[in-house]
Design brief:
About 75% of the residues lie in helices and about 0% in strands. The chain has about 450 residues and is mainly α. The longest helix has 21 residues.
Length: about 450
């Protein structure tokens, strides 16, 4: 029987489960943290038995295939994965897995699930489990008749292996949180709860926020006092998590003006200890909610508040260029094209004037939001110019690992925007990718 679980699980203390996991029969060398991780994943295996039986009784689902996509974009995804995979496992297995997973996520965004699974299974570290769980969530949302039990079992085994290998706790928890989201999508609250025992920090925030996407209005309203308690006493992660849950409620219940106003007030009055960058992210979420509900006037009003906060702050040049690009993209989406171009031009000027002050490994990340907003504005010439700057910024560092990181991000940006940078840039990317070698 399903039980109703709290939307804000990050402050729940399940001492009895944790205590049992720590005091139970474990390997003599197993730490309490590993015992909790392994126990929680094993608990979910038991909770999943009924799901597996039900799946076995269903007729086989049709194979999941990639959606139609221009061959040029498929090629960009493949090249991005190949560049990420060129990073040697030793000593760069963390970076390699991180960027491979980024390509998996991009493939899913472009509705390329078969490609995403192929890429996910090529990852060699714990991120394989996270990527497979992301793929399972995509199927749960788009192809619910698929064999999700087998995928969850595959992700679970990676989590168990990672715990036994003494991986850092947050890595195992990341896999479990992503698996829990699949359970929530399937309506299996008990299975989700079994997975998140002992999970906290940003990982539980991911689950909380996903749970909020299906909350009822009564559930959202009943959590308001709970929100105040966390904002008054919680740590940074708890406060940040609950504010983003409020932003998700804002999106879900936008058509209720009173609840919407209450949520906006709680966010803007409750973020006193939250860094400026996170505050801007929250305002961008609220503006997106308004825009998605065809309330352009309110979206622009919120972006005006965000702009005032941005203008009042002192930024490092790389952060200033990046946030101007992000602001310009939001303004463009809201239909403020002239304002967006002003911010994009300012961001590009900041980069060009301050490039020598920007650490070489941060230059490409500063440029890509600007390149993308010029694509959105329909300014092909300037977009190509900024992508060319990003490509050349990628090779300032003499080591191939940061070069591969930047090239992967550039390729994914081009795939996402479906943008043709021109034959010269394409050839240059190919030349740089082919030259990746020692020193890494």
């Amino acid at each position: 029987m399903k039980t109703s679980q709290p939307i804000l699980t990050s402050v729940i203390v399940i001492a009895s489960v944790v205590g049992a996991a720590c005091s139970g029969s474990t390997d003599a060398h197993e730490t309490p943290t590993k015992a909790v991780e392994t126990s929680a994943v094993t608990n979910e295996r038991v909770a999943d038995a009924a799901t597996q039986e039900a799946a076995a009784a269903k007729p086989a689902a049709a194979p999941v295939v990639d959606a139609p996509l221009a061959q040029s974009r498929r090629d960009l995804l493949r090249r991005a994965y190949d560049v990420a995979s060129s990073i040697p496992t030793q000593p760069h297995h963390k970076t390699r897995g991180k960027y491979q997973e980024m390509v998996v996520e991009a493939a899913l965004e472009l509705d390329q699930p078969a490609t995403a699974l192929d890429f996910a299974r090529g990852i060699e570290n714990w991120r394989r489990g996270a990527a497979i769980a992301e793929y399972a969530l995509y199927l749960a949302e788009n192809h619910p008749d698929s064999d999700l039990a087998a995928l969850l079992d595959e992700a679970r085994q990676v989590a168990v292996d990672a715990a036994k290998a003494e991986e850092q706790e947050w890595r195992v928890n990341t896999i479990r949180a992503k698996m829990a989201k699949v359970k929530l999508r399937l309506g299996d609250d008990d299975g989700a709860q079994a997975l998140i025992v002992g999970v906290d920090g940003p990982e539980i925030g991911e689950v909380d926020r996903y749970r909020a996407t299906t909350a009822t209005k009564a559930e959202a309203t009943s959590r308001m006092a709970y929100v105040d308690e966390i904002l008054g006493q919680g740590d940074f992660n708890s406060q940040s998590n609950v504010l983003f849950v409020c932003a998700e409620f804002h999106r879900r219940f936008y058509d209720d003006p009173d609840l919407r106003a209450d949520l906006e007030e709680k966010i803007t009055e409750g973020w006193g200890k939250i860094p400026l960058g996170v505050r801007l992210d929250l305002l961008f979420e609220l503006a997106d909610s308004a825009r998605e509900h065809s309330d352009r006037e309110h979206a622009v009003e919120i972006l005006g508040d965000a702009h005032a906060m941005m203008d009042a702050a002192h930024w490092l040049p790389q952060d200033h260029a990046r946030i101007l690009g992000r602001m310009a993209k939001e303004l463009c989406a809201a239909g403020e094209l002239s304002w967006a171009r002003t911010d994009a031009d300012q961001g590009l000027a900041v980069y060009q004037q301050e490039a020598e002050r920007i650490t070489n490994i941060e230059r490409t990340e500063a440029l890509l939001p600007l390149a993308e907003v010029y694509v959105d504005l329909g300014d092909t010439a300037t977009a190509r110019k900024v992508y060319a700057l990003a490509v050349e910024a990628a090779v300032v560092n003499p080591n191939s690992c940061p070069r591969a990181e930047d090239l992967t991000q550039i390729l994914l940006s081009l795939a996402s925007k479906s943008f043709d940078p021109g034959a010269e840039i394409v050839a240059r990317i190919g030349e740089l990718a082919g030259a990746l070698s020692d020193p890494w």
